[in-house]
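note to self — DONT lose this again. spent like an hour looking for the file last time. sequence + predicted structure for the chain T wanted, 301 res
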Amino acid sequence: MNMPASTVDSSDRANFDQKKAYVAQEEKGESFFDDGREVELLHFVYGHPSIEEIRGSPANVLKAIDEYGRTRKYLMNVGDDKGRIVADLVAEVKPQVMVELGGYVGYSALLFGDAVRNAGGKRYFSLERNPEFAAVIMSLVDLAGLSDVVKVVVGSSAESIKRLHAQGSLEHIDLMFLDHYKPAYTTDLKLCEHLRLVTPGTVLAADNVIKPGNPPYLEYVRSSVDKKRQAVNSQKSNGVDVSSVFGRSADMYKAREGEENLSTEVKGNPNLVYESKLVNSFEPTGVPDGVEITRCVAVAE
C-alpha cells in the first residue's frame, strides 16, 4: 500500500521539550561519532554518583545516557521521543523475537529490550558492526540487568542475519528496528524477505526516514506488489547510489567503518503486501524526524 509521506517544518519544534534536548550534532566536516565519545560515555555512566541506583535498572541507565547527551556530547541515539513510538509498538505487537539493525551504544537495546521482556518476549537481537560499539552495548546491557533477553551480535548486518538464520537462532522476526547504515535498510529487508524471516504479521520500524532521510527504503515499503514485481522482472538493480542519496552520513560511515558490502543480489519477495505510514517525531536534539511503521499484512497471489 502506497501511503503519502507527512511533512515536518521548523514550526513543529515548538512541540519539542527543549529542556531535554541533546547537545547539537557537530557541524559538517566534524566527527559526530566514533571519536572516543562512546567509551567516554561508559566512564560517565560507571562513574556516576548514582551508580548503585543505576545498576539493574534499564530506565536509570537510559537516564544516565541522556544526561551525557544533554550535558557532554551529542550521541546518535533514537532518543526519548522516537523511542516512545517504538516502545509503544512493542507493547502492542508483543514480539517473541525482535531484531535491531544498528545498536550504537545500546540506547535502543536497553529501551526496547526492556519493553520486549515486559511484553513477555524471549529474545532481542542487537546487530552492530563496530566491535567497540558492541562492547559498549554489552557492558550497559549487563549493567541494566538485561543480559537474559538482549543478545549482541557483532558483524555486518547482512552476514549476521545469514549466520543467525543458518544456525537456527533466528527463524522469524516479529518486530524489526532499522537504525543502521542507511543504504542497507532496503537490501537487508529484502534479505529477510528472501530468508522468510519477514512474513505476514511482521512489523518494521525504520528510524531517520526524514533526517537524514531514506528515499529508496520508503519507495520500497510504500510500493504496490505490481510495482515491485515489475522491478524484479526488469532486473533493476537492487542497489542504490550511496554517494548521491545519502551524502555525509554514508561518507563518514565508509571512512570509519570501511566499505559495506550490501546484499544487492537478493531480490526479496515482491509478493509481500505492506501497509506503511510515517509517524512524525524528533531527534533527541529537537530536530524534526520520523519513524516509518510498516506492517506486512498478506502475500499476494
